[in-house]
Amino acid sequence: MNTIIEQMLSQRKSETLGDKKNSIKEIVQEIILCGLSRAGFFQMAAFYGGTALRIFHGLDRFSEALDFSLLTPDSDFHLEKYLPVLERELGAYGFHFKAEAKVKANDSDVQSAFVKGNTREHILLCYADENLARTVVGSELIKVKFEVDTAPPPYAGFERRFRLLPIPYEINLYDMPSLFAGKLHAVICRAWKSRIKGRDLYDFVFYLANGTPVNLKHLNARLMDSEFAGAREDLTLEEIKQILFSRFESMDYSQAKEDVLPFIHNPASLDMWSKEFFQSITNHLTSE
Q1: What is the pLDDT of residues 31-72, one digit of tens each?
Q2: Are 66 and 79 in contact (CB under 8 A)?
Q3: Domain segments of the chain: what residues?
Q4: Phi and psi angles of residue 211, each rounded to the nearest 5 degrees, phi first
Q5: By the 8 A CB rule, do 136 and 2 touch?
Q6: Are 45 and 148 in contact (CB under 8 A)?
Q7: pLDDT score for 193
Q8: Lower CB density within 10 Å: C or N end of the chain?
Q9: Residue 196 in contact with residue 255, Cβ under 8 Å?
Q10: CB pairs under 8 A, 24+ apart, for 132-137?
Q11: DSSP label at 136?
């Protein structure tokens, strides 16, 4: 096994088969970031979302997707040109992954792609455990999804960040208040239907626990972009709190817990989840 990959694996908790699969996905995510950086992607784009929060700010949950936003709208952007770069970058570390663009049925400003590789093959590559590999269905794939918003709402703030593995590289990242704005937008606007995304709530707690203020101007731009009822460019912090109070009023918190449990190691961190808990901590929300 590649010594750099061995080093990256040693930094991760990998007790169960699920842990091992997630560790491989996390390493693939970081190789993708490195490849995109080396290809000049971050001269025109920024990294945001849950995986950005995990890698650069210590969020203690697994996050599946890589989310990016162009710095300015560009209808001529084509994600496909970066896919061969990612295949070569992953191949340099012994990973056999195919990068494919996702064709969307409807017109969208968000372009998507997946990198996919055989799970059993990469369990053997990373852990050299034939008995464990045989417990995996031969056709099972490790998939990492990434998306690029080509028409992002304005007023986000950015920062440059560095990583040392797999090799030193630099990325452009949403700053914490702008990351928080994106998460509040998800809490307010995501169409949960019958499946509440508890990961949104988990991240909401993380931001508040770290005393993160929200970039209110960017949040309002996102709400207007989504055509949220009542959205306007000058919604106040108190009005945002009232929207959140209402959102937390009738939520199925048992279902929310079920959603996030596979992604965390400490289920006790969810014990307090309730309408009263989320409405109470919303009072601590501040803006820049």
Answers
A1: 999 999 999 999 999 999 999 999 999 999 999 999 999 999
A2: no
A3: 3-174, 176-282
A4: 65, 30
A5: no
A6: yes
A7: 65
A8: N
A9: yes
A10: 132/17, 132/20, 135/17, 136/17
A11: S
Q: Which residues pair with 143 in a beta bridge?
A: 116
Q: Please give the CATH architecture assigned to the domain spanning 3-174.
A: Roll (3.10)
> Residue 194: pLDDT above 80?
no
3-state secondary structure of 104: coil
What strands, in cross-sheet order, belong to the sheet with 66-70? 98-102, 110-118, 141-149, 66-70, 45-48, 169-174, 158-163
Per-residue pLDDT averaged across 72-78, rounded? Answer: 95
Q: Which two tokens stand for residue 238?
A: 């108190």
- Dihedral sign for Cα atoms in the order 277, 61, 142, 103: positive
Cβ atoms of 28 and 115 closer than 8 Å: yes
Q: Is 69 left (phi over 0), alpha (psi -120 to 50) or beta?
A: beta
Q: What is the pLDDT of residues 229-278, one digit of tens each?
A: 999 999 999 999 999 999 999 899 999 999 999 999 999 999 999 999 99
pLDDT of residue 13: 82
- Give one word for 283, left, alpha or beta, with left for phi > 0 and alpha for psi -120 to 50: alpha
- Alpha-carbon gap, residue 119 to 117, rounded angstroms: 6
Assigned token pair, 250: 């009738």
Stretch 108-124: mean pLDDT, rounded? 96
pLDDT over 70 (residue 153): yes
160: tokens are: 């440059």
Please state, in angstroms and rounded to a whole number, the distance separating the CA atoms of residues 180 and 185: 8
Contact 158, 182 (CB under 8 A): no
DSSP SS3 for 114: strand
Residues 182, 59: Cα–Cα separation, whole Å: 15
- Whether the pLDDT of residue 1 is over 80: the answer is no
Spatial distance between the Cα atoms of 67 and 204, rounded to a whole number of angstroms: 17
